[in-house]
Protein backbone atom coordinates (compact mmCIF):
# COMPACT_ATOMS: atom_id res chain seq x y z
CA UNK A 1 0.00 0.00 0.00
CA UNK A 2 2.92 2.37 -0.49
CA UNK A 3 2.13 5.02 -3.08
CA UNK A 4 5.19 7.14 -2.31
CA UNK A 5 8.85 6.18 -2.34
CA UNK A 6 9.71 4.70 1.03
CA UNK A 7 13.08 4.40 2.74
CA UNK A 8 13.54 0.64 3.18
CA UNK A 9 16.89 1.14 4.97
CA UNK A 10 15.26 2.03 8.28
CA UNK A 11 14.54 -0.54 11.02
CA UNK A 12 11.28 -2.48 10.86
CA UNK A 13 9.70 -5.06 13.17
CA UNK A 14 11.40 -7.97 11.36
CA UNK A 15 14.91 -6.80 12.27
CA UNK A 16 16.48 -9.15 14.83
CA UNK A 17 18.91 -8.21 17.65
CA UNK A 18 22.09 -8.65 15.53
CA UNK A 19 20.68 -6.54 12.68
CA UNK A 20 19.70 -3.83 15.19
CA UNK A 21 23.06 -4.00 16.98
CA UNK A 22 25.05 -3.49 13.78
CA UNK A 23 22.64 -0.81 12.56
CA UNK A 24 23.05 1.12 15.84
CA UNK A 25 26.84 0.65 15.69
CA UNK A 26 27.13 2.44 12.33
CA UNK A 27 24.16 4.78 12.73
CA UNK A 28 25.58 6.14 15.98
CA UNK A 29 28.71 7.13 14.03
CA UNK A 30 26.77 9.20 11.51
CA UNK A 31 26.79 12.10 13.96
CA UNK A 32 29.62 13.13 16.28
CA UNK A 33 29.56 15.47 19.25
CA UNK A 34 31.58 18.69 19.10
CA UNK A 35 33.60 19.95 22.09
CA UNK A 36 30.85 22.46 22.84
CA UNK A 37 28.26 19.66 23.04
CA UNK A 38 26.83 20.37 19.58
CA UNK A 39 26.39 17.92 16.71
CA UNK A 40 28.56 17.48 13.62
CA UNK A 41 28.85 14.99 10.78
CA UNK A 42 30.42 11.68 11.79
CA UNK A 43 32.61 9.40 9.66
CA UNK A 44 29.73 7.22 8.42
CA UNK A 45 26.66 8.15 6.38
CA UNK A 46 23.57 5.99 6.00
CA UNK A 47 22.63 5.59 2.34
CA UNK A 48 18.83 5.83 2.05
CA UNK A 49 17.23 3.08 -0.02
CA UNK A 50 17.28 3.73 -3.75
CA UNK A 51 13.78 4.09 -5.17
CA UNK A 52 13.57 3.78 -8.92
CA UNK A 53 11.84 6.80 -10.37
CA UNK A 54 13.17 6.92 -13.92
CA UNK A 55 10.56 7.00 -16.66
CA UNK A 56 11.79 5.66 -19.97
CA UNK A 57 10.50 6.97 -23.23
CA UNK A 58 9.00 4.25 -25.42
CA UNK A 59 11.21 3.79 -28.44
CA UNK A 60 10.15 3.06 -32.02
CA UNK A 61 11.83 -0.35 -31.59
CA UNK A 62 9.65 -1.18 -28.57
CA UNK A 63 6.48 -0.13 -30.39
CA UNK A 64 7.12 -2.16 -33.53
CA UNK A 65 9.19 -5.18 -32.60
CA UNK A 66 9.11 -6.11 -28.94
CA UNK A 67 5.57 -6.51 -27.67
CA UNK A 68 4.24 -3.05 -28.42
CA UNK A 69 3.70 0.06 -26.35
CA UNK A 70 1.29 -1.63 -23.95
CA UNK A 71 3.63 -4.40 -22.79
CA UNK A 72 6.59 -2.06 -22.66
CA UNK A 73 4.72 0.54 -20.59
CA UNK A 74 3.19 -2.11 -18.33
CA UNK A 75 6.58 -3.61 -17.55
CA UNK A 76 8.17 -0.22 -16.99
CA UNK A 77 5.36 0.91 -14.69
CA UNK A 78 5.73 -2.21 -12.55
CA UNK A 79 9.54 -2.25 -12.49
CA UNK A 80 11.17 -2.27 -9.06
CA UNK A 81 14.67 -2.67 -7.73
CA UNK A 82 15.15 -6.44 -7.40
CA UNK A 83 16.39 -6.38 -3.79
CA UNK A 84 13.39 -4.30 -2.64
CA UNK A 85 10.74 -6.15 -4.64
CA UNK A 86 9.35 -8.47 -1.94
CA UNK A 87 6.92 -6.58 0.27
CA UNK A 88 6.69 -8.91 3.29
CA UNK A 89 9.06 -7.50 5.92
CA UNK A 90 11.85 -9.93 6.78
CA UNK A 91 11.04 -12.44 4.02
CA UNK A 92 13.97 -11.73 1.73
CA UNK A 93 16.65 -9.00 1.66
CA UNK A 94 16.57 -6.80 4.78
CA UNK A 95 19.57 -4.51 4.47
CA UNK A 96 21.04 -1.11 5.07
CA UNK A 97 24.17 0.49 3.59
CA UNK A 98 26.59 2.92 5.23
CA UNK A 99 29.38 4.84 3.48
CA UNK A 100 32.64 6.20 4.92
CA UNK A 101 34.11 8.59 2.36
CA UNK A 102 37.39 9.25 4.26
CA UNK A 103 38.17 5.54 4.54
CA UNK A 104 36.75 4.91 1.01
CA UNK A 105 34.69 2.06 2.46
CA UNK A 106 31.06 1.04 2.31
CA UNK A 107 29.35 -1.55 4.51
CA UNK A 108 26.12 -3.44 4.06
CA UNK A 109 24.28 -5.14 6.93
CA UNK A 110 22.11 -7.97 5.63
CA UNK A 111 19.52 -10.10 7.41
CA UNK A 112 18.77 -12.96 5.02
CA UNK A 113 15.10 -14.02 5.08
CA UNK A 114 13.47 -17.39 4.39
CA UNK A 115 12.83 -16.71 0.68
CA UNK A 116 16.58 -16.56 0.00
CA UNK A 117 17.15 -20.28 0.55
CA UNK A 118 19.61 -22.18 -1.62
CA UNK A 119 20.98 -25.36 0.01
CA UNK A 120 18.58 -26.40 2.82
CA UNK A 121 19.01 -23.97 5.71
CA UNK A 122 21.51 -21.75 3.90
CA UNK A 123 21.46 -18.67 1.68
CA UNK A 124 21.41 -19.09 -2.12
CA UNK A 125 24.71 -18.20 -3.82
CA UNK A 126 22.86 -15.96 -6.27
CA UNK A 127 21.33 -14.00 -3.40
CA UNK A 128 24.81 -13.55 -1.91
CA UNK A 129 26.10 -12.38 -5.30
CA UNK A 130 23.16 -9.96 -5.54
CA UNK A 131 24.03 -8.42 -2.20
CA UNK A 132 27.74 -8.18 -3.06
CA UNK A 133 26.76 -6.45 -6.33
CA UNK A 134 24.47 -4.12 -4.38
CA UNK A 135 27.05 -3.08 -1.76
CA UNK A 136 30.01 -2.79 -4.17
CA UNK A 137 27.76 -1.17 -6.82
CA UNK A 138 26.47 1.47 -4.42
CA UNK A 139 30.05 2.04 -3.22
CA UNK A 140 31.32 2.47 -6.79
CA UNK A 141 28.38 4.80 -7.57
CA UNK A 142 29.21 6.94 -4.50
CA UNK A 143 32.86 7.11 -5.61
CA UNK A 144 32.44 7.45 -9.38
CA UNK A 145 28.82 8.35 -10.22
CA UNK A 146 26.66 6.19 -12.53
CA UNK A 147 28.31 2.81 -13.16
CA UNK A 148 27.51 -0.68 -14.37
CA UNK A 149 28.99 -3.94 -13.16
CA UNK A 150 31.46 -5.22 -15.76
CA UNK A 151 33.01 -8.03 -13.71
CA UNK A 152 32.13 -9.78 -10.46
CA UNK A 153 34.42 -12.52 -9.14
CA UNK A 154 33.26 -14.47 -6.08
CA UNK A 155 34.81 -17.09 -3.81
CA UNK A 156 32.29 -18.79 -1.51
CA UNK A 157 34.24 -19.88 1.61
CA UNK A 158 31.55 -20.98 4.09
CA UNK A 159 27.75 -21.13 3.82
CA UNK A 160 25.57 -18.40 5.36
CA UNK A 161 22.82 -19.76 7.65
CA UNK A 162 19.36 -18.61 6.58
CA UNK A 163 18.00 -15.98 8.95
CA UNK A 164 21.43 -14.84 10.08
CA UNK A 165 22.79 -11.31 9.89
CA UNK A 166 26.04 -10.77 8.01
CA UNK A 167 28.31 -7.81 7.31
CA UNK A 168 29.46 -6.95 3.78
CA UNK A 169 32.51 -4.65 3.65
CA UNK A 170 33.49 -3.02 0.37
CA UNK A 171 36.88 -1.28 -0.07
CA UNK A 172 38.21 0.74 -2.99
CA UNK A 173 41.22 -0.94 -4.61
CA UNK A 174 41.90 1.60 -7.37
CA UNK A 175 40.36 3.75 -10.07
CA UNK A 176 41.72 3.84 -13.64
CA UNK A 177 39.96 6.19 -16.02
CA UNK A 178 36.35 4.95 -16.28
CA UNK A 179 37.11 1.82 -14.22
CA UNK A 180 36.50 1.48 -10.45
CA UNK A 181 37.92 -1.66 -8.81
CA UNK A 182 36.57 -2.71 -5.41
CA UNK A 183 36.90 -5.73 -3.08
CA UNK A 184 34.28 -7.12 -0.75
CA UNK A 185 34.28 -9.49 2.22
CA UNK A 186 31.18 -11.06 3.74
CA UNK A 187 31.61 -12.07 7.39
CA UNK A 188 29.40 -13.21 10.26
CA UNK A 189 28.09 -10.37 12.42
CA UNK A 190 30.83 -10.97 15.05
CA UNK A 191 33.53 -11.01 12.35
CA UNK A 192 34.66 -14.54 13.36
CA UNK A 193 33.62 -16.37 10.16
CA UNK A 194 34.60 -15.40 6.64
CA UNK A 195 31.70 -16.42 4.40
CA UNK A 196 32.55 -14.90 1.02
CA UNK A 197 35.21 -12.85 -0.76
CA UNK A 198 34.80 -10.95 -4.01
CA UNK A 199 36.38 -8.46 -6.37
CA UNK A 200 34.38 -6.30 -8.74
CA UNK A 201 34.95 -3.95 -11.64
CA UNK A 202 32.52 -1.13 -12.36
CA UNK A 203 32.65 0.96 -15.53
CA UNK A 204 31.33 4.53 -15.56
CA UNK A 205 28.50 5.02 -17.98
CA UNK A 206 26.51 7.85 -19.46
CA UNK A 207 22.95 7.39 -18.13
CA UNK A 208 21.62 9.43 -21.07
CA UNK A 209 23.26 7.03 -23.55
CA UNK A 210 21.63 4.01 -21.86
CA UNK A 211 18.16 5.58 -21.67
CA UNK A 212 18.31 6.70 -25.30
C1 LIG B 1 20.11 3.21 -16.34
C2 LIG B 1 21.39 2.93 -15.62
C3 LIG B 1 21.37 3.64 -14.31
C4 LIG B 1 22.67 3.38 -13.60
C5 LIG B 1 22.50 3.95 -12.26
C6 LIG B 1 23.76 3.86 -11.52
C7 LIG B 1 23.77 4.02 -10.20
C8 LIG B 1 22.49 4.14 -9.48
C9 LIG B 1 22.78 4.42 -8.06
C10 LIG B 1 22.54 3.55 -7.11
C11 LIG B 1 21.99 2.24 -7.43
C12 LIG B 1 21.89 1.50 -6.22
C13 LIG B 1 21.79 0.22 -6.21
C14 LIG B 1 21.91 -0.54 -7.46
C15 LIG B 1 22.14 -1.91 -7.09
C16 LIG B 1 23.08 -2.67 -7.56
C17 LIG B 1 23.93 -2.33 -8.70
C18 LIG B 1 23.63 -3.32 -9.76
C19 LIG B 1 24.54 -3.04 -10.91
C20 LIG B 1 24.23 -4.03 -11.97
O1 LIG B 1 23.80 -5.10 -11.71
S1 LIG B 1 24.52 -3.59 -13.57
C21 LIG B 1 23.85 -4.97 -14.48
C22 LIG B 1 24.86 -5.99 -14.92
N1 LIG B 1 25.83 -5.39 -15.81
C23 LIG B 1 25.60 -5.24 -17.11
O2 LIG B 1 24.58 -5.58 -17.63
C24 LIG B 1 26.73 -4.58 -17.89
C25 LIG B 1 26.77 -5.06 -19.33
N2 LIG B 1 27.94 -4.50 -19.96
C26 LIG B 1 27.96 -3.25 -20.47
O3 LIG B 1 26.95 -2.56 -20.48
C27 LIG B 1 29.26 -2.75 -20.99
O4 LIG B 1 30.10 -3.80 -21.30
C28 LIG B 1 29.97 -1.79 -20.00
C29 LIG B 1 29.09 -0.53 -19.75
C30 LIG B 1 30.28 -2.48 -18.67
C31 LIG B 1 31.28 -1.33 -20.63
O5 LIG B 1 31.02 -0.98 -21.98
P1 LIG B 1 31.52 0.40 -22.61
O6 LIG B 1 31.30 0.30 -24.09
O7 LIG B 1 30.91 1.54 -21.91
O8 LIG B 1 33.06 0.43 -22.28
P2 LIG B 1 34.24 -0.50 -22.82
O9 LIG B 1 33.78 -1.82 -23.31
O10 LIG B 1 35.04 0.35 -23.77
O11 LIG B 1 35.09 -0.75 -21.49
C32 LIG B 1 35.66 0.33 -20.77
C33 LIG B 1 36.90 -0.21 -20.07
O12 LIG B 1 36.50 -1.28 -19.19
C34 LIG B 1 37.15 -2.53 -19.55
N3 LIG B 1 36.19 -3.61 -19.34
C35 LIG B 1 34.90 -3.65 -19.72
N4 LIG B 1 34.34 -4.79 -19.38
C36 LIG B 1 35.29 -5.50 -18.75
C37 LIG B 1 35.30 -6.78 -18.13
N5 LIG B 1 34.22 -7.54 -18.09
N6 LIG B 1 36.45 -7.21 -17.58
C38 LIG B 1 37.57 -6.44 -17.59
N7 LIG B 1 37.60 -5.20 -18.15
C39 LIG B 1 36.49 -4.76 -18.72
C40 LIG B 1 37.54 -2.34 -21.00
O13 LIG B 1 38.62 -3.17 -21.36
C41 LIG B 1 37.89 -0.86 -21.04
O14 LIG B 1 39.19 -0.71 -20.46
P3 LIG B 1 40.27 0.30 -21.07
O15 LIG B 1 39.61 1.65 -21.06
O16 LIG B 1 41.43 0.20 -20.17
O17 LIG B 1 40.52 -0.19 -22.46
TrEMBL record:
Domain Thioesterase, residue spans: 121-193
Subcellular location: Cell projection, Ruffle membrane; Cytoplasm; Mitochondrion inner membrane; Mitochondrion intermembrane space
EC top class named in words: hydrolase
Biological processes per GO annotation: apoptotic process; fatty acid metabolic process
Catalysed reactions, semicolon-separated: (9Z)-octadecenoyl-CoA + H2O = (9Z)-octadecenoate + CoA + H(+); hexadecanoyl-CoA + H2O = hexadecanoate + CoA + H(+); (5Z,8Z,11Z,14Z)-eicosatetraenoyl-CoA + H2O = (5Z,8Z,11Z,14Z)-eicosatetraenoate + CoA + H(+); tetradecanoyl-CoA + H2O = tetradecanoate + CoA + H(+)
InterPro entries linked to this entry: HotDog_dom_sf, THEM4/THEM5_acyl-CoA_thioest, Thioestr_dom
E.C. no: 3.1.2.2
Membrane topology of the entry: Peripheral membrane protein
GO molecular function, one term: hydrolase activity
Keyword check for Hydrolase: yes
GO cellular component: mitochondrial inner membrane; mitochondrial intermembrane space; ruffle membrane
Signal peptide: none
Keywords annotated in UniProt: Apoptosis, Cell membrane, Cell projection, Cytoplasm, Fatty acid metabolism, Hydrolase, Lipid metabolism, Membrane, Mitochondrion, Mitochondrion inner membrane, Transit peptide
Organism domain of life: Eukaryota
Record-stated family: Belongs to the THEM4/THEM5 thioesterase family.
Name by which UniProt lists this protein: Acyl-coenzyme A thioesterase THEM4
Species this protein is from: Tetraodon nigroviridis
